[in-house]
Design brief:
257 residues, alpha+beta, four-stranded antiparallel β-sheet, binds 2-amino-4-trifluoromethylsulfanyl-butyric acid, binds cobalt (II) ion
């Protein structure tokens, strides 16, 4: 729980720092750069410019400071100096920052040059599913309502919601309770109250919801080698509504079909 009188400001600050990393790295995303280089640029920026720490570095042994998940990688891709991005790739960068006792967690898709129609539609549907869920939040909403909104929208658009990974409580801990499923479950009737903070981070696939964990113990890929896309924000429930702590400059949570 976040104390909305004394701790809200710190949640907003750390969320804003995380959002700045995604804005900053955009300029560097070009064919020919490696995900290892993108990692190093982000880490330097986080430590030297933002005076903060990556919560991902060394988290349960994760070796890098951001996650870079390309094309059929669903999540937790490990930045690699030998993995070069190329025209047509879709890339998720996931950033989690720790500062002054609090966490902010956010990710978005980047399209490298011109991408296929299905790839760009997948990214758009992932983004809209997150925005639609956020727009519907109010203190008192059940988590399975959020899950249902995402699942219905994604399936209506012909894509599949990943079931094996979910959003989470966040605040003074990186991964806290509750689990935030991106699909409907009867049991998931947990009620959001003022002072709670969660992430919503739907992963959606083109061919099926099947995923498999690679031998490195981190990288998650689609089972069928179809494409996957994800967007993530950190959301704090307030007395009358919510705040998206990781909202980027110029980002508007609007929802237009
Ligand atoms: N930021 C990811 C999330 O959204 C978690 C990354 S932790 C790692 O929860 F160790 F896998 F990198
Ligand atoms: Co994240
Ligand atoms: Co998260």
């Amino acid at each position: 729980m976040i104390n909305l009188d004394t701790e809200l400001e710190k949640m907003l600050i750390v969320g804003n720092l995380a959002s700045k990393v995604l804005d900053m790295i955009k300029l560097y995303i070009k064919p020919g750069i490696s995900t290892g280089e993108l990692n190093d640029i982000c880490n330097l920026y986080i430590e030297k410019k933002l005076n903060a720490k990556s919560a991902i570095l060394n988290y349960k042994g994760f070796p890098k400071s951001i996650c870079t998940s390309i094309n059929e990688v669903v999540c937790h891709g490990i930045p690699d100096n030998n993995r070069y991005i190329k025209e047509g790739d879709i890339l998720n960068i996931d950033v989690t920052i720790f500062k002054d006792g609090f966490y902010g967690d956010t990710s978005k898709m980047f399209c490298v040059g011109k991408v296929s129609k299905i790839a760009s539609r997948l990214c758009l549907v992932a983004k809209k599913s997150l925005y639609l869920a956020i727009k519907n939040i109010y203190p008192g909403i059940k988590l399975n309502t959020i899950g249902k909104i995402i699942e219905n929208f994604v399936e209506f658009n012909g894509f599949y919601v990943v079931k094996d990974y979910c959003g989470h409580g966040i605040g003074k801990k990186f991964h806290d309770n509750p689990q935030v499923l991106h699909y409907y479950s009867d049991y998931n009737n947990y009620v959001l109250k003022p002072g709670m903070a969660i992430t919503i981070e739907p992963m959606i696939n083109t061919i099926s919801d099947g995923v498999k964990l690679m031998k490195d113990g981190w990288t998650v890929k689609t089972k069928d080698h179809g494409l996957s896309a994800q967007y993530e924000h950190t959301i704090l429930i307030t007395k009358n509504g919510y705040l998206v702590t990781t909202l980027r400059d110029n980002e508007k949570i609007d929802f237009i079909i």
